[in-house]
Amino acid sequence: MKGLTSILGFDDVYQAQSCFRRTDYEWIDLSDVKNANRYCEIQSLEVIGERLRKRSNKGITFIGSGNYHYVTYLLLSEVKSPFTLVLFDYHTDMMPPPCQSVISCGSWVLTSIERLPSLKKVVVIGAKSDLDVTIPKHFNKKVSVFPNDSTYREDRVKNAIIFAIPTVNVYVSIDKDVLDKSEAATDWDQGNMTLAQLLRLIEHIALHKRIFGIDVCGEYPVPPADRFCRESLLATRINEQANRKILDSAMKVKTLKKLAM
């Protein structure tokens, strides 16, 4: 059955989350792809891209651990119309790749700006306030950063974000490391945004723009041997709560549903 939601299986992080057991969700097995964790070789990226292109469900993609956030680059590369990437992330993911034959979870935004002509602007929300130095100066006009720091005021930020988005079409990418540790469990350093803040901002963007795609990453990678330890069970529970609320909110975005079906 065709639906909106695809779930990527690089590892087993989603199997323990009951909210993903619906029959209209499409699972894409990527567990056999080698050299893809954090740093992805071009040959592996091509394999992932080929499997993504064959999927039926388009609209909402759950990627897995933040180590695979570079998959967003592949999802964005499918877009032909002008659009803006709105990225909720504690990091800008704009570090230079270690070499030209590799894309990483820390470099994919920079790669997207350089290689995707349809991507007109990147708006990063919730990033660590000192990470603007990672943005190359010649891309300053293509990137806006809204850190969630002591100066954050939601009423002002909402309107400023809309003003910073020059296109009608918007793609939203969420790394749950932007959230406070009470709201999500990741294996990266985390911000202090609340899930309620994040969802309100997405709803506000949807009122003014056309959100045609959403992806989510930032799961806590659980080794099979540790799946039933207290720390892993707690991480799974808190992440499932966040994923469930994000998914419920995403399903209410009418433009997303209309464009993806």
What does this structure look like?
The chain is an alpha/beta fold and 261 residues long. The protein has one domain (5-260): Ureohydrolase domain (Arginase, Chain A, 3-Layer(aba) Sandwich). The chain is built from seven helices and ten strands. The protein has helices at 42-53, 71-76, 108-115, 154-164, 195-208, 230-251, 254-260; strands at residues 5-9, 26-29, 39-41, 60-65, 83-88, 102-104, 119-125, 143-146, 169-175, 210-219. Strand 9, helix 5 (195-208) and strand 10 (210-219) form a beta-alpha-beta unit. It is globular and about 45 Å long.
CATH class equals Alpha Beta
Query: What Rg is obtained from the alpha carbons, in whole angstroms?
Result: 17 Å
Alpha-beta content class? alpha/beta
Portion of residues in beta strands equals 15-25%
CATH fold-level name: Arginase, Chain A
Please tell me the overall pLDDT: 91
The CATH architecture comes to: 3-Layer(aba) Sandwich
Q: CATH homologous superfamily, by name?
A: Ureohydrolase domain
Largest sheet: 8 strands, parallel
Anisotropy-based shape: globular
The count of strands amounts to 10
For the largest beta sheet, what order do the strands appear in spatially?
2-1-4-10-9-5-7-8
Note poorly predicted spans: none
**Into how many domains do the coordinates divide?**
1
| DSSP summary: helix tally | 7
Spell the H/E element sequence. EEEHEHEEHEEHEHEHH
